[in-house]
């Protein structure tokens, strides 16, 4: 029975690879999504295989003792190969996404240009707005990646970083889950649930962002606290705070959570003191300093909650004094969908809601649609902390069930994998990417250059670059590709603009590489 299930699973995987290969060579398709039927089939096979092969038999051993799996399958032997597989899978996905021109100026081009400029003498200056990135967000962690740009100064470095962050987060979550559940199979299921979750995968698939490294350090923070690894705890806490200034707001409730747990109070105190001190300096000293350098006067990110107040204090007072207005501003459908995707398991350990709920409320009360919907990277931190809550909830469930403690939590985790699976997207690289990279060499002296957002990450971010269409009035050169997306314009808006340029008298066609077209402003225009 086990061998037959394994054969069926392998055949399903081969069929999956064959469908991907067909898509890559299909002339009219740029990406392939698993159909509902094939996705359902894979889910059924995975569940059946896990239940028959991977889950250990119920054991009366106390939960504090390590339960060993008998037979040929040893979960810990699969963890490293699976993590390496995730690394390759994620890097391949990000790389083909880029070659298919499905990356844009925000955020890949912004971070790529900031790091490129850093190693070329202009510290953290992004070429889109020609200002230091820290005037938007204090991502000191991002600056730590700049030495890698001395080895190779291309966006592929960021794809490697994305894949590494994903793979190491998988490994660290496995270790944390095993620490709390004391069962290798359950820990492996939990790590797979994290890596195959739609919020997590969808976030990593979006461009590039320093937030991608946060799950690794959050899991390390919890693991080091439970293992009483003081130095490792302080290192992970430091890196979390350095990722972005608002992360101090996420660490404060974690510190309160640790204070409530016996044996972890000094870790909670350290998390509270560290986050409060850093947050105070970040918002009152560092951000104003860099904003002044960039000629800014307002913290733009705070404007997303402008309907609640103009400052952190006003927003806090508004939430406390007008709770009905705050509750009315929440986006309940994303909240419900999020809870379903995690089977509401954090409720089994109610104290975890201290750090699970705040990022959810913070995001779903925002005015920006992507943030409210927990889309792209905005859903990553809530999902990361929710997975910690899931493990704490299942740990408590095991203590209550005792005799059948491995089977029932295992079923919960399998269902968690099923409800969290996304429809994985595959990208078809275009041969025009070669032309784009060749064109970059000829465009170094074409300044000022107005460039379509999908093309910006493919350019060497040197000189005077800006994004179409805002820059079209002052630019001398214009680089566009009519078949690609052009953030922030819709396809219809871009087509209208392109036709206006192509048929007007202000611009003349200078050179083209297939559909990639370089225009030059006519003299006197």
Task: Show the helix and strand layout.
Layout: H1 2-25, E1 31-33, H2 36-54, H3 75-99, H4 105-118, E2 125-126, E3 131-132, H5 140-143, H6 148-151, H7 156-181, H8 184-195, H9 198-205, H10 214-226, H11 230-243, H12 247-259, H13 265-293, H14 312-321, H15 323-329, H16 332-341, H17 353-364, H18 369-372, H19 380-401, H20 407-420, E4 425-427, H21 432-442, E5 449-451, E6 465-467, E7 477-480, H22 491-503, E8 507-513, E9 516-521
Parallel strand pairs: 5-6, 5-7
Antiparallel strand pairs: 1-4, 2-3, 7-9, 8-9
Helix pairs in contact: 1-2, 2-20, 3-7, 3-8, 7-8, 7-10, 8-20, 10-11, 10-19, 11-13, 12-13, 12-17, 14-15, 17-19
Structure description:
- This protein is of the alpha/beta class and 525 residues long.
- Helix content is 59%, strand content 6%.
- It is built from 22 helices and nine strands.
- The strands form three sheets. A five-stranded mixed β-sheet has the order 6-5-7-9-8. A two-stranded antiparallel sheet has the order 1-4. Strands 2-3 form a two-stranded antiparallel ribbon.
- A hairpin with a 4-residue loop joins strand 2 and strand 3 (131-132).
- Helix 2 runs antiparallel to helix 20, helix 12 (247-259) packs antiparallel against helix 13 (265-293) and helix 17 (353-364) runs antiparallel to helix 19 (380-401).
- The N and C termini lie far apart (76 Å).
- Residues 27-35, 57-61 and 63-71 have low confidence and may be disordered.
